[in-house]
Automatic annotation (TrEMBL):
It comes from Duganella radicis. It holds the Pfam family Cupin_8. PROSITE patterns: JMJC (PS51184). Residues 76-269 form the JmjC domain. InterPro entries: Cupin_8, JmjC_dom, RmlC-like_jellyroll. This is Cupin-like domain-containing protein.
């Protein structure tokens, strides 16, 4: 029921092309970072990998999530969905590494997870010898450290290059078209900022979530080891399992749009406020307006209007974005 992702071998961290970094479907890059010192240390042993991270640590506090054994690594809601099954904490990374090291022999173990931490802040100097070249892309480089974990299926707005630096990870991905079949939870109350699928991928309840069977017909999977990488295009749903007692992931996020553009999530939240509860015929009318001005807009959309008079119908610029944001704030603060 699952297809393997397309794979490329023989590409090094300095050889990433635009064709790879703008792909419209996920892509596995075997051995991309095989030469990283972090990868070589982790392959020697878990403790050697942990010691390599310690060499670069200079005392920064990190955000971590702690979960009990009963969750078996799955970060999720509690049973009543009014909270979560983990405890967020702020701690020294040195203490987190000690906790992971002390639990290496336990399975299942209480879960320890440091997610999405900026590398240059947390581990100065790490990227000097453990990095990739992305051309002119202004990417955010983050590190994820933990033991055995399961991260529910979610999407990210930026494109994502994720490099397994220690341990093994299983990626399960779905195209954006599978949204309705993934049974996504609340959009404004989430474990880590992004709406997630409520389906337990290791034990899916097809009576409760019957359409998930259709989603599985479209899923792509890959298991990655140390040094392997995966490119995940913007908006693709991805479920990630860290399979070993010690796992490290390095990822790079970037957008293919200018920094002055706001996140489309703001438009979605505004649509809940302004559109969703309109009468059906009015929603259909607005659907046509959005089709015309947004989703199928092209050079002909405003061609009949003099260029100097097109306002928001003109291509967006940094100054135009600033002016439009001010108008929106004024409208919302009425």
């Amino acid at each position: 029921m699952s297809e393997a992702l397309r794979e490329i071998s023989g590409v090094g961290p300095d050889q990433l092309t635009d064709a790879i970094l703008t792909a419209s479907e996920p892509l596995v890059l075997r051995g991309l970072a095989a030469g990283w010192p972090m990868v070589r240390a982790a392959l020697a042993s878990d403790r050697a990998g942990i010691d390599y991270l310690r060499q670069h640590y200079q005392g920064a506090t990190v955000g971590a999530m702690l979960g009990g054994r009963e969750a078996e690594g799955r970060f999720f809601y509690n049973d009543s969905m009014d909270g979560f099954n983990f405890q967020p904490v702020h701690a020294k990374l040195s203490g987190v590494l000690e906790e992971i090291e002390a639990k290496l022999a336990l399975n299942p173990a209480p879960t320890v997870y440091v997610g999405s931490t900026t590398i240059d802040t947390c581990l100065p100097g790490f990227r000097q010898h453990n990095d990739v070249r992305l051309g002119a892309r202004d990417a955010l480089a983050s590190i994820w450290i933990g033991n055995r974990t399961r991260i529910a299926a979610h999407y990210d707005l930026p494109d994502n290059l994720a490099v397994v630096a220690a341990g093994h990870r299983r990626f399960t991905l779905f195209p954006p078209s599978q949204l309705a079949n993934l049974y996504v939870g609340p959009v404004d109350f989430t474990p880590a900022g992004q709406a997630i699928s409520l389906v337990d991928f290791l034990n899916p309840d097809l009576e409760q979530y019957p359409r998930f069977a259709e989603a599985r017909r479209h899923q792509l999977t890959a298991e990655l080891g140390p040094g392997d990488a995966i490119f995940i295009p913007s908006m693709w749903w991805h479920h990630i399992e860290a399979l070993d007692p010690f796992n490290v992931l390095v990822n790079y996020w970037w957008r293919q749009s200018p920094d002055y553009m706001d996140t489309p999530t703001n438009a979605l939240m505004a649509a809940f406020l302004t559109l969703r509860d309109l009468p059906r015929e009015q929603r259909k009318a607005w659907q046509e307006i959005f089709r015309h001005y947004i989703f199928e807009a092209d050079d002909s959309t405003a061609a009949h209007i003099p260029a100097h008079a097109r306002g928001v119908l003109a291509p967006l610029s940094e100054d135009g974005a600033r002016a439009l944001r001010a108008q929106l704030l004024k409208r919302l603060n009425r």
